[in-house]
Amino acid sequence: MALPSTNTAAVDFLKALVRIPSLTGEEAAIAGFVEQHVRRAGVDVLRHEDNVAFGIGEGDDTLLLNSHLDVVPPSDDHPYDPFEPVETDGVLYGRGAVDAKASGAAMTTALLSLAADGWAPTNGRLLVGLTTHEESGGTKNGLQDLRPNLPSLSAAVVGEPTTLRPCVAQKGLLILKIHARGTAAHAGRSHLGDNAIPAAMTAIRQLEDLSLDRADPHLGAPTATVTTIEGGEAHNVVPEHCVFTVDLRTTPAYTHDEIAGLVSEAVDADVEVYSDRLVPCATPEDARIVRAARAACPDAEPFGSPTSSDWVFLHDVPTVKMGPGPSNRSHTAEERIDVNEVKRAVTVYRDLIRAYFSRAA
């Protein structure tokens, strides 16, 4: 078990991280701070752009603890300066306090405290990777860029707020653009045209009738929601094109290619795959990393999460998503975390690490 002074160090480190505004794409200062902090503790650091990775141990069995350094912009009506950590009544306020600097602070402190204890895995390597561009959802992603520079991974923990419950499945996101086609004509001679807007309405009804009822045990069935629609260019022209967007929250019960194919068969319109990179993820509950997480938190039942994370870039590796704080405080003006949960996270991560490496592969 980590000593109280070690757990308190994690809170101090978290406060220092919150003080550094690290909006997505602006992570250089915080990456430099983390690098210096780890080097002062005598642990070597790999710096790839503004991604920071460090570890202890040798061997092929590599466990990665990953969280992200970037935060979303401040909300309106923060009770305090969002980049000045304020602790009151055992609660720490600040942008990133929950999502996800608490996870990064606890993971870093867990590794450094194990190193200070003289512990390292005898049969593998423990890594912590703190990465960039998680919040943007764009094509650039820090973990995706960092991973080719890391050893082959055996398992991973993604640090996101789960109140330290082990998340073993998360939904993916598939965005489709569905194009209904028609023929343009002057609205005064509408019989000479073919209006694409009613065709789009037909396609929407066909989509609503499509059954995606194969359920995941933790996440249920996928959902499909029409979120935008656009058609027509002028009030006196019969529209020849109408396009609508479908937001599909997917589960491991279907692949993205499978769902896109089913939608194409169901609708009388052209289906464009607009984005399919955020794949659904799941890890079997008997996987070694899940058993280690449950050993560290024996009273916490595994669950499935509707929110995406950098787990999508570890979908080929047995992974759990697990970190301090509740997810519903992420990105809010009231973002805050219980100090005791940050301290507890250090102990949980240390216990998870030891449990993982004490088990046979």
From TrEMBL:
- The enzyme class is hydrolase
Q: Which InterPro entries match?
A: ArgE/DapE_CS, Bact_exopeptidase_dim_dom, Peptidase_M20, Peptidase_M20_dimer, Peptidase_M20A
Q: Keyword Metal-binding on this protein?
A: yes
List each copy of the Peptidase M20 dimerisation domain by range: 168-270
Tell me which UniProt keywords the record has, alphabetically.
Cobalt, Hydrolase, Metal-binding, Zinc
**Obligatory cofactor(s):** Zn(2+)
Enumerate the Gene Ontology biological process terms.
L-arginine biosynthetic process
EC number annotated for this UniProt entry: 3.5.1.16
Which Gene Ontology molecular function entries are recorded, alphabetically?
acetylornithine deacetylase activity; metal ion binding
Q: Domain of life of the organism in this record?
A: Bacteria
Protein's name according to its UniProt entry: Acetylornithine deacetylase
From what organism does this protein derive?
Salinibacter ruber
